[in-house]
Amino acid sequence: MSLEKETKYQRCRERILALCEGEEDVVAKMASVVGVLHNEMEGFYWTGFYRVVDGGLVIGPYQGTVGCLRIEVGRGVCGTAAKVGETQVVPDVYEFPGHIACDASSRSEIVVPVKDASGSLIAVLDVDSTEKGTFDEVDQKFLEGILAEVFS
Ligand code: SME
Q: What is the pTM of this model?
């Protein structure tokens, strides 16, 4: 299972890097990351970015059901990842205090902070699954790696 997941991530990484090569527009790159991951990875029910705008999080490119438009830093899983600057792996969203249920089908998620070349937080990537315990350290390793290569 894990090996297959690693193979899929490696394929995604190559496609994303090829798509984003020479591209400087951040939203174009976010759309490409989401488009590849959401369609290639298994169990990615909602895949999208929340961008840091005026000190809050505002929806960016995503695929899946309609997401919340704005999230305060410090609120929910996305807001926590933005506040502490570290990836949040949540095996069961019902056990995460303050989880924001934009879609009641979401059951587990991973949220990864996105930084630019100067180390400033520019967004978070949020991936939700309808199953419990979908995400682990393999997802964390590959998503953090891909985002660093594309945006830093
Ligand atoms: N799960 C997120 C909210 C955003 S959506 O589910 C699209 C959270 O608690 O941060």
A: 0.96
